[in-house]
What we know:
The protein is an alpha/beta fold. It has helices at 12-16, 29-42, 56-69, 92-97, 116-133, 145-156; strands spanning 2-7, 49-52, 73-75, 138-143, 159-160, 163-164, 178-182.
Amino acid sequence: MKLIFCRHGETDWNAEGRMQGHADIPLNQIGINQAYNLKERLKDIKIDFIFSSPLKRALETAEIINESLHIPLIIEPALIERDLGKYEGLTRSEIEKMGINIHLELDNKIPTVESALEIEERIYNLLDKLKREYEDKTILIVSHGGVGKVVYWYFNSPKINGKPTRISDVSVMDNSAIIEYNS
């Protein structure tokens, strides 16, 4: 399977440095322009299916990309961003001032926040399924920065007992960034 992962276009909360998580924030005008740029960059690539997070910012990006591809667009709940619970809408510095370290690489359990282990299990299970069911296909995933980090770990990290380890120095992808993987 060839997998092309792209992060959604910019939202107002991205521009303000706010943590979005499950908050359903739409693209802003810059994000819409970024989605059209992605559409242009991907229009000549043979892609068989698009899988998108159900959140507006990802789904809007996927729908714009698909305007030129005209291929099946599958809304996949497992691709939703990490649930940040009561910290959604705050900036990272506001959260850190509360004494909370919300970094995805840590195994800390924060009340109301999806743990690193929980998002890993969700994304790794989906990627294992896609590899089995779409082994000879090219898949485009449109999702979020936290999900992109976990996808990166899945394909690039050393494996222990068959499971990828975390690489702590991986930064979140920029809005509308694309990374390709081959399995």
